[in-house]
Amino acid sequence: MEGYSPQRREMMRDRNKASQRHTQGREEEAEKRAAKVFKNGQTLVCANQRFELGFFNVSSTNDHNHKMWYLGLWYREIKLLTAVWVGIMMKPLRGFGMRLVLNSVGDLLLRDDVRTVIWFVGVVQPASRPELVLLDSGNLVIKDGDNLSDGGFVWQSFDFPSNTLLPGMKGFESRFTTCYDILEIV
Whole-prediction pTM value? Predict the structure, then answer.
C-alpha cells in the first residue's frame, strides 16, 4: 500500500477486513452444513476400539502455539503413542484451532487455526451422503451412504500409507521389514 494516501490505505484496510469477515462467515456456514467436523481434542474410534483418529503432537513444550500437531491414526491401547498413519507428515500444524472437515460432497479438508486449507482430499465422484468411518483394520474411509457397491468407499487411507504398513494396505504383500514397520494385528 506504499504510495497511497493515508485515507486510501485506511479505506483499503477496511475493505480487506470486511472481505475477511464475509469469507469467514461463509466458511463457518459451510462448516455448519458439513457432514462432519473434528476439532483438536476430538477423536474417532473404530468399533473394536483398537485404532483412533485425531490430532497428536510430538513437541515437549506446553505452549499450544508452539506445539507441532499432526493428523493421524494410532493404536488406542498402547500408552506410548504409536502412530500408524499420518495424513500430512511434511508440514506439522501449529496452534490449537485446527479442524478436519468432511464436506457435503465427501471432500476432506484439514484447516489450520486461521482456517487455511493445509491438506485436501478431493473425491472423483461426489458422495450424496458422505460418512467418515474408521474401520477395525485401521483404514480411514470416506463412504457414500447411498452407494454401497464396491464397499462404497470414495477414498481410503490404505491407498496412502505413511511410515507403517498394516495388513490390507497397498504394497503390504510384497514388502518386507526393511524400511517400514510391519505390525501384526493380533
Answer: 0.71
